[in-house]
Write a structure and sequence with these properties.
The chain is mainly α and about 475 residues long. About 75% of the residues lie in helices and about 0% in strands. The protein has helices spanning about 10-45, 50-80, 80-100, 105-130, 135-165, 170-175, 180-190, 195-200, 205-215, 225-230, 245-270, 270-275, 285-300, 305, 310-330, 335-350, 355-365, 370-400, 400-420, 430-435. Helix 5 runs antiparallel to helix 13 (about 285-300). The longest helix is centred in the N-terminal third of the chain and has 35 residues, at about 10-45. It is globular, with a radius of gyration of 21 Å.
Length: about 475
């Protein structure tokens, strides 16, 4: 049987596209997390109040709102490859620029611009990786891609801690250091092929065929590309708000925001939170942050174990289990440092286990013509909540750390409720099936003849 994009085994091209897209996620996690280490130093250096400190911490998230809304749509119009390179180039320039700032407002503007580039990268990374990935390997491959965000965040805390000396400009070196991984990823991304699904959606059939046959051989089957090209007429930005797509847009925007609000608020101010909970001796708060990043990475990787057993149950269990340690922290008047670390580690394992769905759901629920647009809109919409949480976190933490933990648990509860009402099941189905607006994205409709599986049955990955 000839191989096709949907039914092939993962090969070198699949892995390279996934890892290069994941390289962008690494930079995103690094850039958004290094500010958590640098911000206390910035605050001290510029003698900032809580409001200005919160604005610098949330500026990138506000920029992501703009970048996601604009560049997801641009990506659907001009192609995946162009945006794929331009956003990483912007990372390099803006990272270096942060070293030379002389006032907090200039730093805020640069962090905002960095957020625009990150929003663009979020819109493109999951889109291009999913459009190359085979059906049964799409979930695991995107888990690997998204896990790179957690690896980048962990690397940021390690690098930040190693750069902490008594020097006046430590924070400048920390923020500028993100130029190094960005430069490496830019070099690696050169030569990445354009998405054959996007080429087909633009009528560039010969080019799409050339890409697929270069990947899979001269006898590659192109039927799945042709099938997706016929999954409806969505073309305009506003199509993501119409009919069934509108329901899906609401779902991914809300669940993504509920995932990110507590995560960004905690990771951005993690040393401060840990210090307020008793880890305030020397560098213990920073070392605790580094240790917790390991659990965040493990939590993200754990998604591989569950992603093909059902997208919906993974999301529901993740929200439910993430709420528990935050609720416990809100109830404990004087927790021990070990209890604090254990509870935050449990939160990281639970909440990060479903992070892959931030890339998977938007990619599976929308057709090629508006896939990056939907990904970008969800990125932007989710960052509204995350920005509000990050900006408001210093204020709430200044009042009560226990209150901040309770609000985090409450937000997880809201995410669970919305997901319970709106989350579809897409596991084991082709992009043509899951992205169609003519049928619900429900895996229970799959049949054995279609080569798919029920969401409750494990999928055996091709070796």
């Amino acid at each position: 049987m000839p191989a096709s994009l949907e039914n092939s085994r993962p090969n070198r091209t699949h892995w390279l596209v996934t890892l290069y897209a994941g390289g962008g996620e690494f930079c995103d996690g690094y850039i958004l997390s290094i500010i958590g280490v640098a911000l206390p130093l910035v605050t001290s250096d510029f003698d900032l109040g809580g409001a200005m400190s919160g604005l610098i911490g949330s500026a990138s998230l506000i920029g992501m709102f703009v970048g996601g809304l604009v560049f997801g749509y641009v990506t659907d119009k001009v192609g995946r490859q162009k945006v794929y390179l331009a956003d990483i180039a912007a990372f390099i320039l803006l990272s270096v620029g942060q070293f030379f700032v002389s006032d907090p407002w200039t730093l805020t503007v640069l962090r905002f611009a960095m957020g625009i580039a990150i929003g663009a990268d979020f819109a493109i990374a999951g889109t291009i990786a999913s459009e190359f990935a085979p059906r049964r390997s799409r979930g695991p491959l995107l888990v690997v891609m998204v896990t790179m965000w957690s690896v980048g965040a962990a690397a940021a805390y390690v690098v930040g801690w190693l750069m902490m000396t008594s020097g006046h400009d430590d924070w400048r070196w920390m923020l500028a250091s993100s130029a190094v991984p960005a430069a490496l990823i830019l070099l690696l991304r050169f030569g990445t092929p354009e998405s054959p699904r996007w080429l087909m959606s633009k009528g560039r059939t010969d080019e799409a065929c050339q890409v697929v046959r270069h990947m899979l051989g001269p006898d590659a089957d192109l039927h799945d590309l042709e099938a997706e090209a016929d999954t409806g007429g969505a073309r305009r930005y506003t199509d993501i708000f119409r009919g069934e797509y509108g329901r899906r847009t609401l779902f991914i925007g809300v669940f993504w925001a509920c995932q990110l609000l507590p995560i960004y608020a905690i990771t951005t101010y993690e040393p401060t939170i840990l210090a307020s909970l008793g880890l305030d001796h020397g560098d213990s708060a920073y070392l605790g942050s580094v240790a917790l990043q390991i659990f965040f990475v493990l939590g993200s990787l754990s998604g591989i174990l569950f992603i093909n057993r059902g997208r919906r149950p993974l999301l529901l269990w993740s929200f439910a289990l993430a709420a528990v340690p935050l609720l416990v922290l809100s109830l404990l008047a004087d927790p021990s440092p070990s209890a604090v670390l254990v509870l935050f580690a449990l939160f990281g394992l639970a909440s990060f286990s479903s992070q892959c769905l931030q890339a998977i759901y938007p990619s599976e629920l929308f057709p090629t013509s508006i896939r990056a647009t939907a990904n970008g809109f969800a990125t932007g919409a989710s960052r509204i909540g995350a920005a509000i949480g990050t900006w408001g976190a210093p204020v709430v933490l200044g009042h009560s750390t226990r209150l901040a933990m309770f609000l985090g648990a409450l937000i997880c509860g809201v995410g669970w409720f919305v997901s319970f009402r709106l989350a579809p099941e897409t596991s084991g189905r082709s992009l043509a099936e899951t992205s169609s607006d003519r049928a619900p994205a429900d895996a229970s409709a799959a049949t054995p003849d279609s080569g798919t599986t029920s969401p409750d049955a494990p999928v055996r990955e091709p070796s």
